[in-house]
């Protein structure tokens, strides 16, 4: 990925733990590396095909002057998120906020916080087999698209499937969506659980009836496992009701563990039925 760099932009702002810092203010130095694809701009000489670093510099200056934070960690985090949300073509940002006169009572050049944030691509499976099933699924799509730091890019059609696990229950309506997100996997899981709860989801019977079921299938090419979250979803390669709608929107997405595409996994599942 190509990079556009802004080095040591001087901003006079009022961030700090001590009250006098919030009143008097001081100089901060901000450096940003903007990750984007400059190919089209490089071939056409068209500024709209790239990132306007002058406008980004003005945005950084205005944002840090308009807000007051106790910690430069908070200043960096908030600024990175705002840049990703509001800068066209920006896919990833490395941001360093330097505080030259940090009040530590010792001589130093500066204290700084450096972070890296980016858009991630997640695939979410949706299911419902209680009440107004399509209404629950449509509502979940809207809720995710409206969630701060999330953008729904693609949605599959809804598929009627027999229940999985506990079979003595109503048929499910299933689907998948592609999500661009700034959330970490854990934060995304919390968001999904909150949306489920708002839809009246009750976790009483494992694989039992539910108004809304939201699962993270893939998150970039991440492989992780904790007590509460496994990515990729541990049973994605076995579930035709996940693979069928996922195939509609991402047939060539590779499983980072087994290396197979969604299409290949779906073909294997269908041949075994």
Task: Note down, in words, how this protein is organized.
This protein is an alpha+beta fold. The protein folds into two domains: 2-118, GTP cyclohydrolase I, C-terminal domain/NADPH-dependent 7-cyano-7-deazaguanine reductase, N-terminal domain (GTP Cyclohydrolase I, domain 2, 2-Layer Sandwich); 120-272, 7,8-Dihydro-6-hydroxymethylpterin-pyrophosphokinase HPPK (Alpha-Beta Plaits, 2-Layer Sandwich). Helix content is 33%, strand content 29%. The protein has helices at 19-24, 39-44, 53-66, 72-86, 133-146, 185-198, 240-249, 262-272, and strands at 2-13, 26-36, 92-99, 111-118, 120-128, 150-155, 159-161, 172-181, 213-219, 224-225, 230-231. Strands 5, 6, 7, 8 and 9 form a five-stranded antiparallel beta sheet that branches. It has a four-stranded antiparallel beta sheet with strand order 1-2-3-4. A two-stranded antiparallel sheet has the order 10-11. It is elongated. The two termini are 42 Å apart. The model has no long low-confidence stretch (mean pLDDT 93). It catalyses: 7,8-dihydroneopterin = 6-hydroxymethyl-7,8-dihydropterin + glycolaldehyde; 6-hydroxymethyl-7,8-dihydropterin + ATP = (7,8-dihydropterin-6-yl)methyl diphosphate + AMP + H(+). Its EC number is 4.1.2.25, 2.7.6.3. GO terms for molecular function: 2-amino-4-hydroxy-6-hydroxymethyldihydropteridine diphosphokinase activity; ATP binding; dihydroneopterin aldolase activity; kinase activity. Keywords: ATP-binding, Folate biosynthesis, Kinase, Lyase, Nucleotide-binding, Transferase.
